[in-house]
Structures are given as C-alpha cells and as structure tokens.
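ingest -> validate -> predict -> emit
validate: passed (alphabet ok, no gaps, 220 aa)
predict: started
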Amino acid sequence: MLAEPGSPTETPRPSDEARPRRRRGRPNVLSREQVIDAATAIANEEGLDRLSFRALGVRLGVAPMTVHRTIGGLDDLHAELVRRTVDEFTATFVWPADWREVVRVFACTFRDLLRTHPLVLESHSRRAPLVSSESDAVVAKVVGALRAAGLSDTDAVYAFFVVYDFVVGHASVQVGRGESDAGRPERQQLVGQVLGTHSYDARFELGLDVLLAGIEARGR
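emit:
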C-alpha cells in the first residue's frame, strides 16, 4: 500500500529478538602497580579512610569492580601499600661502620619515611605491623650495632624499640600538629620565652643525642 503524498512514512521497528545485541566492550586492564600508585597518592593526600574502590576507580578512570579484580580486598591493599613503601625506603639505607651512626641513620631515615608517607604512620597508629621484605634485615643491623655498643642481647632489642618508639612519637606529634598556628609549640608561654622559635629538627636531634648518650652509658 502506497502512502499518500505528504503523509509521514513510518519505518517498522525491529522486534527485540531481531534487534542486534550491543557488544560489551572488554573491561579495562589495570596492573597492580597502577592501582598501588593511585592508592598511595590517595592515602597520603586524604588518609586511609578515604581509600575505596570507588575513589580508586575515579582516579584511574575505570569501574570500581575493575580495581577489585586487579588488587583483591582493601585489607590486602593496605598491607601492600605499607610493604612497598617501607621496602622503597629500606633500600635507601647506606650503613656506616660506627654503631652510633647506624642508629642515627635508622632513626633519621625512618622519620623521613613517616613524614613523607603519612599512610605508613596512620597504618602504624591502627596497630598494623610495618613489615616488608627488608624490615627484618634493618632490625638485625640496628640490633647488631647496639650489641657493638656493649649492650646485652636483650638490652639491644629493647633499645632498638626505644629508638623506634621515639621516632614514631616525634613524627606523630609533628604530622598531627601540622603547620597550624594552634599547633605551634612556641605559642606556649614558657617555650616562647626560652626558645623564641621552635624547631622540630633541633628537637629531634637533641632527643636522638640523649638516647645515644644513654645507650653508650648503658653499654659501659
């Protein structure tokens, strides 16, 4: 049947069965390194609480499920972040011969790690172990240096943890206070009168010197 001139021509629509099905595209492929790099950035910038598959998907431009398939659960991802970050820092250790300098290198490098990567400090505050493939070797090196200072095996291990706790505590105070006026120690009356300007670096160095002097006295 012909349509009358000027009348609209209706094109028959195919049924659902006859309509060609849309092919789903292949899921985006991610590497574990890409996910860990993005997770490290989010955790350091915004905190571990903001680390989610959705946040990772937005940063990487993929669906959250793609991230999940690549990396597994969030607990595994947290552990992987800490492991890789600690491994990267332990690889930078250059050990001197003197036991005092060994302890100093450990303390200063560990402090740099905690200040540069807040995710490690935050993970530590949640009582998660800061383990890595190289962490045992670092502990053994520092404990060995403390034995060389004359400490017994037991005292050397405990002294390692004294230094470790000092670094964690110092970094926690500094990172927690940040640069805000309210957190500046020199705003306290006595500190301001004596020091004028407060320096976290000078405070850290003095604390470390006191610890080393105490270790040396203990080893005599």
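The chain is about 65% helix and 0% strand.
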